[in-house]
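Students often ask what a holo structure prediction actually looks like on paper. The answer is less mysterious than it sounds. You provide the chain, you provide the ligand, and the output is a string of discrete structure tokens encoding the 3D arrangement of the protein together with adenosine monophosphate.
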Amino acid sequence: MEDCLFCKIANKKIESEIILENDYFLVFSDIHPKANIHFLIVPKQHIKSVDDVMDGDELVLGKIFTTAKEAAKKLGVSGAYRLGVNVGKDGGQEIEHIHMHLLSDKTRKGVEKL
Ligand code: AMP
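The corresponding structure tokens follow.
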């Protein structure tokens, strides 16, 4: 999707603070953090929202949890974080590219960027 902000970030056309990348996801810091630690787990594949998930998306979306777990470990917040997904404008979704928020109230320690 050419006009999608998160597609541009996922394709590294726009800079972000990346802490984890795998075949399916990029994990980067939220520009307006709502907790001490606030990262976004964003699939490289464009899916608009949970309402637009199709049969066949299970593989990538199943991996969102293993990616979240890895990101939490890297951030040093295992066992002390929240995950959230907003769905639709009325559900608080601002960016129309499916993503999961990873938030923690733990204090951020020196996390190495990728
Ligand atoms: P949502 O409201 O669930 O769609 O979440 C979108 C999130 O993206 C918000 O928390 C924004 O602060 C964040 N955001 C918007 N633009 C950027 C950006 N360029 N880089 C990082 N995070 C962003």
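The chain has a mean pLDDT of 94.
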